[in-house]
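Example S7 (structure tokens).
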């Protein structure tokens, strides 16, 4: 049992870099993640790198309407244990 077992974490901007590394680590340690990114192509490529239960959401935090879309997605994801911005 990993230290993130049963935990749900949202990571924004996780289609590359430290956010992606964090998502991989959290899932390796039993957590469930929702990751966001602006580039749909990058997100689709991640489907092969992350567990099938990972939630991927195209979302650009620079767009005002993106906040509502993210809030709705998080609501359906369930109670959060962590948020990585």
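Recovered sequence:
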């Amino acid at each position: 049992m990993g230290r993130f077992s049963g935990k749900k974490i949202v990571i924004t901007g996780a289609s590359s870099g430290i956010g992606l590394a964090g998502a991989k680590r959290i899932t390796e340690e039993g957590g469930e993640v929702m990751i966001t990114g602006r580039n749909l192509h990058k997100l689709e490529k991640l489907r092969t790198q992350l567990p099938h239960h990972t939630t991927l959401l195209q979302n650009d935090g620079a767009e005002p309407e993106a906040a509502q879309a993210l809030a709705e997605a998080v609501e359906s994801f369930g109670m959060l244990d962590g948020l990585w911005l």
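Notes on this example. The first strand starts at residue 8 and ends at 11.
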